Amino acid sequence: MFWRLFLTYLLLVVMAVGLVGIYILQRAESLFYELANDVGLGVFLVMGLAAVPAYLLARQFSRPFDELTDGARRLADGDLGHKIRVSGGKEHYDLAATFNAMSGKLADTFAQLAHDREQLRTILSGMVEGVIAIDQDQRVLFANDRAGQLLGFDPSGAVGRKLWEVARQRGFQEIVGKGLGSNGPHREELDWKGPAARSLAVYVSRLPGGGGPGAVVVVHDTTEVRRLERMRQDFVANVSHELKTPLSVIKSTIEALQDGAAEDPTARVAFLSQVSHEADRLDALIQDLLSLARIESGEFGLELQAVALDKAIIDCLERHQPRAETKTLTLVEKPPANAPADVPALADSDALRQLLDNLVDNAIKYTPNGGRITVRWEASADQVWFEVEDTGVGIPDRDMPRIFERFYRVDKARSREVGGTGLGLAIVKHLAQAMRGSVRVASQVGTGTTFKVTLPRAVVSRG
Questions:
Q1: Burial class (CB in 10 A: 0-12, 13-18, 19+), 169
Q2: With CB atoms 3.0 to 4.6 Å apart as the test, which of 77, 150, 331, 384 could cross-link to 130 if both were Cys?
Q3: pLDDT of the residue at 87
Q4: Number of folded domains in the chain?
């Protein structure tokens, strides 16, 4: 711009001198040549000197525009909020003020966009669902960490790559392809095969518009939901079976009595004894179900207080001693060598009694004749724990994660042979948790099983 203005000013001077010369030439040709001889050199000198003010005027007028151009270039390079300061007339100041206002507005707008983008990225990264944005060619535009965890890829290296390169399972690709080809959202279940098998629900929502992402893929892990659904189905089936079995026996026994067995004193006693036994079994099942429901709902009414652990263990072993003797089992209490006898657990006395009874009863059922059951206990500054160890049949490793489930039986035939409702260990787990404790199990097939229950230690003030 500067050189154009400079040459324009010089051209104007030249044109002005030329017009004066032409005018004189037309009016008096002799005067023109006379003046040309006398002042010609001066005219050229004046024209040369005019270049200096032309240069200064051009520089003064073009400098604000150069500063504006430089400011716009810096703005384009990312220097948002850059301000320019120009000198000149009112028009220059107005132009500079408008530019500075635009620069500040752009800085605020881009800052807000960056904040919103970072906030959205943080929200997406913290979601329990995997989120992947892809374009129409299935090229990854965004993937959060959860998507990488569920589908087994590194999200930081996925952007720009094809989706099939980062998630290499045909079933997943087919679902995404169906979603891109559909007009509305597409949902489908997928069994993901990998180092950690999962059940996934894949949602594909196609997005409108050109140049943007072709679809958003949301992946939800339904493994736990599927497991709970199977547990619910198993629970309903097991409850139905456990209720049906004693009811069927009672019904068939009553029918036999009605058909004439009641007239035979020996048969009548046997049948009535069987009815009583099955009624007791049915009552125990219902009571355990009700207890478990109350514990899970928080309506069990626990009153946590100081309970002498050693006395609770001794009382439990005394209650089960007659049953142990019928199987020639040895019941042993093993207190710690360096702890006082009256270490208190913070527990509900009835809940602790039921918990101990279930564990010892379970050990008696699954320990062969002549075996040994040991109940040992220990204490620390803030906890107490006891272990019920038997020399029974043990639990296979594959069954260990499920033994605290309701009605789960390692050996269904043997479990029904020895009796029980199948709810004992589930009640143990929930009672321990309700008393702010925990229960763990260790077992070896053919050697025995050890259940360890940890409870808080009560703080007893001594006055």
A1: middle
A2: 150
A3: 62
A4: 4
Determine the Cα–Cα distance for residues 423 and 340; give it in Å rounded to an integer: 34
Confidence at residue 2, expressed as pLDDT on a 0 to 100 scale? 46
Q: Which domain holds residue 11?
A: 2-99
* Helical (H) or strand (E) element with 94: helix 90-125
Q: Specify the residue for token string 């626990």.
A: 302
Look at residue 105 and tell me if it is in a domain: no
The pair phi, psi for residue 329, each rounded to 5°, is -95, 150
Mean pLDDT score across all residues of the chain: 77
Domain end point (choices 237, 268, 297): 297
Using alpha carbons only, give the angle 122, 125, 126 rounded to the nearest 5 degrees.
Answer: 85
Distance between CA atoms of residues 456 and 463, nearest Å: 22
Distance of alpha carbon 111 from alpha carbon 81, whole angstroms: 10
How far, in Å, CA of 25 to CA of 18, rounded? 10
Amino acid at site 93: Y
Q: What is the CATH number of the domain that holds 386?
A: 3.30.565.10
Beta partners for residue 385, in sequence order = 378, 454
Same domain, 88 and 169: no
* Angle 159-160-161 from CA coordinates, rounded to 5°: 95
- pLDDT band at 261, cuts 50/70/90? confident
- Determine how many CB atoms are found less than 10 A away from the CB of residue 253: 20
Beta pairing, strands 330-334 & 305-308 = unpaired
Q: Number of helices (H) and strands (E), helices first, in the chain?
A: 12, 12
Structure tokens that stand for 159 in this block: 């952007």
Number of CB atoms found within 10 A of residue 400's CB: 14
Indicate the residue type of 24: I
Asked if residue 291 and residue 232 are part of one domain, the reply reads yes
pLDDT tens per residue, range 44-58: 565 565 566 655 555
Q: Token digits for 207?
A: 């997005």
Residue 395's SS3 state is coil
Question: Phi and psi (nearest 5°) for 191?
Answer: -95, 105
Residue 366, pLDDT > 80, answer yes
- What's the rounded Cα separation, in Å, for the pair 292 and 34? 129
pLDDT per position as a tens digit, 160-198: 888 888 888 888 888 888 888 877 888 888 887 777 777
Element (H, E) at 458: none
Mean pLDDT over 425-447 rounds to 90
User: Could you tell me if 364 and 386 lie in one domain?
Assistant: yes
